[in-house]
């Protein structure tokens, strides 16, 4: 059976390689992530207790929520914001919804361990724009 939980989070970012000025400027979104897990219903009656699943999602979002997330190539802005005391983080590649979804999938996979199968994460950049990331999309290397 599948179970899904949603969490909202806030991130400011910019897409430094974008030719679109609106994307190139530092700006924020309230994002949402839908996390879908799958597994057998246990003796406790749960695929996974929503309270526990919520904790895992919150842990995966730690370091993202209310932060500035930049691409790892955005060195000047990163250094400038750091000097100003801004809590700024980087991810590999541009901080697009797609790359954020990959990072969240990998973090959740680590948080969940073998307790349940992580089917997918859906990252909503707004009410009408989302990306979906599964295991293959996240390029998780198992046993290696
Ligand atoms: Zn944006």
TrEMBL record:
It catalyses: 7,8-dihydroneopterin 3'-triphosphate + H2O = 6-carboxy-5,6,7,8-tetrahydropterin + triphosphate + acetaldehyde + 2 H(+). It is an enzyme of class 4 (lyase). The keyword Disulfide bond does not apply. Pfam families: PTPS. Pathway: Purine metabolism; 7-cyano-7-deazaguanine biosynthesis. Coiled coil: none annotated. This is 6-carboxy-5,6,7,8-tetrahydropterin synthase.
